Amino acid sequence: MPLNIIIGAQWGDEGKGHITDRLAHDAAIVARYSGGDNAGHTVAIAGEFFRLHLIPSGIIHPGVVCLIGNGTVVNPAVLLREIDDLAARGVDVSPSRLKLSGGAHLITPGHIAMDKAHEKSRGAEAIGTTMRGIGPAYTDKARREGLRAELFADSEALAAALQAHVALKNAALVGGYGEEPLDAAVMAAEFAGYARRLAPYLVDGPLLVDEALRHGQMVLAEGAQGTLLDIDHGTYPFVTSSSPTAGGAMTGLGVGPRMVDRVIGVAKAFTTRVGSGPFPTELSGEAAVRLRGTGEKPWDEFGTTTGRPRRVGWLDLPILRHARRINSLSEWVLTKLDILSGLPEIPVCVAYELDGRRVESFPHDLASLARCRPIYESLPGWEEDIMGVRRPSDLPDAARRYVAFVADSTGTPVTFVSVGPGREQFIEMI
Ligand code: IMP
Q1: Count of alpha carbons within 13 Å of 144, Cβ hemisphere only?
Q2: pLDDT band for position 42 (50/70/90)?
Q3: Which of 34, 110, 147, 182 is least surrounded by Cβ atoms within 10 Å, i.e. has the fewest?
């Protein structure tokens, strides 16, 4: 049983946590390989909503080991809050079930202060980050000035690393941005407390994954964010600072591509994005509210991490073809099909018009993307409520046709469709 990877095909928030939870019961390990608490994964079980930012969605399954891999950036305060919240709800989050790879990088209050100061300094050009310190933590990693979780096992090395870190951050915060300095002693005391609690969770992540794979067990790599937020293959610079794509699972977990079996692309039946940047099929006004919801329901389109209303638009096939190519997808999971019920017809963007030409592929540069106009094909809608449907044959014809259209237009089968937030609200298509 090899490595299976779950990837977001759009700009994040596709419902990866939901399908990870569904597939986790066959896995020995569920691992996060990139990103940090900028992610927000919602899993609904028996009407109870679990909102996870750092801990893999597999944690809800007893018996599954959850790993926070080398490629992630971890705010220890957030991780401990999540551990405490889950424990209070009766979930086993002991070190026998949750593992933190020593090579994961730490996010400090210095990174968060830098994220805020940098966004403020960009003014109208702001990326619209989640302000969780993600970019600055990855910047320090690439500058070889980062703090790795393994420091939690060595209190002297941790204290020394923090002192150097605060000096560097203060130089940038005060000198570069005119912000207040951080207090090194306060941060040292805070992190000494985190180290005491988190040291028992430390492991060699790549070794743990290798052992499982060599014993024929399945490892599920849970993507965070999405293909269009990838630092290399997304809508740069309006991206996150890591590699949420399939390649990121290789470096983030320390596994080679020969171990990979399925690469599962998760796509919403329409499109959403948070933060700035071009969005060809974006809707406004009433049509947008129809897809977004009003925020009353936990699954309405408002950020799990920031609470921001998400920008919404019709399904965009050039984006899905891009995701299929970048990730070598083996299949699709199409989520939130139920949200489209009741629409008389459903426009789907099949290509773009760019400078008078029809293009089928997603442009590689942002300036071209900003000039793309969607070319729509309208598919018939359906009236029926499909939230209770569990078999493909019980779907209305038009809904089945919508799913088949996605598969045919991308040359990739749809294996699951989700029709609601509940654990059981999936239709297995094949
Ligand atoms: P950062 O990851 O906080 O640096 O934010 C960079 C961009 O990625 C912003 O547009 C964020 O809104 C977006 N982003 C980061 N994480 C997520 C996510 O989990 N879902 C959706 N958008 C995200």
Answers
A1: 0
A2: confident
A3: 182
